[in-house]
Design brief:
The protein has helices at 3-23, 39-55, 71-79, 146-156, 163-176, 186-195, 201-208, 214-226, 246-254, 286-294, 318-335; strands at 29-32, 60-64, 84-86, 97-101, 120-123, 136-139, 228-230, 233-240, 262-268, 272-279, 299-302, 306-312, 344-345. By secondary structure, it is α/β, with parallel strands linked by helices. The structure holds manganese (II) ion (MN).
């Protein structure tokens, strides 16, 4: 292990000692992920639950907002027996301690009520003002995954864990960084390599290759047929969708179009527009670009190469969504300093 890693673990040990000491004996613990949780937020939550169970023995519940839609994520929850419940099924007064992972208060991507107190935040997105009111904050925005931070917590606290949690953490880092292909640092690589021998390969294979319904391919078809290219920018609109995380999946997929360096995708789900932004350009910060594009219409956030956002919108008819697409496309071209050019369809009908 490098000297740098030892220092990290020392700081991590100090921080975890302090918050676990504070937490001990305070009663039931709630861990909240972001809405439509991805593997990283689920892994971080499960690792934190494991840490608390071993170290303080307090009852711990993991809860999420929105839905778990993506085939890989559903397979992960089922095959690795990830024990999560919808946030709106809980009586929040029942919990004395609230933790948030892979998200922060006031980001717009979690459903935890704003007026309620949060005690601990563990995240890898740029730190927000709203964390001022949180007692324990560990935000490392250089980390590729919150799961990497949680792996370090378990290491620092010398908490052993089984093959299921190892597989969960490994898959989180794998999918969040696309196998160390984007937004990763050495800590992610270290965790990835150390977790790999502990992984259940056969379950991992089933997660990476889940069965998907025919509707899944319809979304691909819609995205491809609706995709418009403006220079090296691709914009697609899924219109109404029943699984909001399809937008992110298709944004990743369409970023592979040659010469395309920036992708903005959108889809309408439950009175809101779900946005996904991807870029291969290292001179851009995806989170900042999408925040500027969305402006006061909604909320957004992210990392260097990936970002997400949401715009509340009561009407989901085609015309309204087309107008929103136009507005966002226009703003994106402006933010990226492009001359407003007419779009060309990705594929000819
Ligand atoms: Mn994450």
């Amino acid at each position: 292990m490098t000297a740098e890693a030892v220092v990290d673990l020392k700081q991590t040990l100090e921080f975890t000692e302090k918050f676990l000491g504070w937490m001990r004996g305070r009663g039931a613990v709630l861990i909240v992920t972001h809405d439509h949780p991805d593997p990283d937020s689920l892994a971080a939550a499960m690792a934190l639950k494991h840490l608390i169970t071993i170290k303080t023995g307090q009852p711990t519940t993991v809860a999420f907002g929105g839905m778990i839609g993506r085939g890989e994520n559903r397979a992960m929850v089922e095959k690795l027996e990830i024990d999560v419940v919808p946030l709106d099924s809980l009586d929040l007064d029942r919990f004395q301690v609230v933790c948030m992972v892979d998200s922060q208060p006031g980001t717009g991507n979690n459903s935890f009520p704003r007026e309620r107190k949060i005690d601990l935040v563990i995240d890898h997105h740029p730190v927000r003002e709203s964390c001022r009111d949180v007692r324990w904050v560990d935000v490392r925005d250089d980390y590729g995954a919150t799961a990497t931070m949680m792996y370090e917590y378990l290491q620092a606290q010398q908490v052993s864990f089984g093959t299921k949690l190892a597989t969960i953490l490994f898959y989180a880092i794998k999918s969040e960084t696309q196998d160390l292909g984007r937004d990763w640092i050495r800590a992610d690589r270290r965790a990835y390599l150390q977790l790999l021998p502990l992984v259940n390969n056969s379950i991992l294979f089933d997660i990476v290759h889940p069965e998907v319904p025919r509707a899944y391919f319809a979304h691909f078809s819609h995205a491809i047929r609706n995709a418009m290219i403006y220079n090296n920018i691709l914009v697609f609109n899924l219109y109404g969708i029943d699984t909001p995380d399809m937008v992110a999946e298709l944004a990743d997929f369409l970023l592979r179009v040659d010469e395309v360096k920036v992708v903005l995708g959108m889809g309408y789900y439950k009175q809101g527009l779900a946005l996904s932004f991807r870029t291969l350009r290292h001179d851009l910060n995806a989170g900042e670009v999408l925040q500027t594009v969305v402006g006061t219409l909604g909320t957004a956030g992210g990392h260097g190469m990936i970002a997400g956002g949401q715009i509340p919108c009561a009407a989901g008819d085609r015309k309204t969504l087309q107008q929103l697409e136009q507005t966002l496309t226009h703003r994106l071209l402006q933010v990226l300093g492009c001359y407003p050019v007419p779009g060309l369809p990705l594929v000819a009908e």
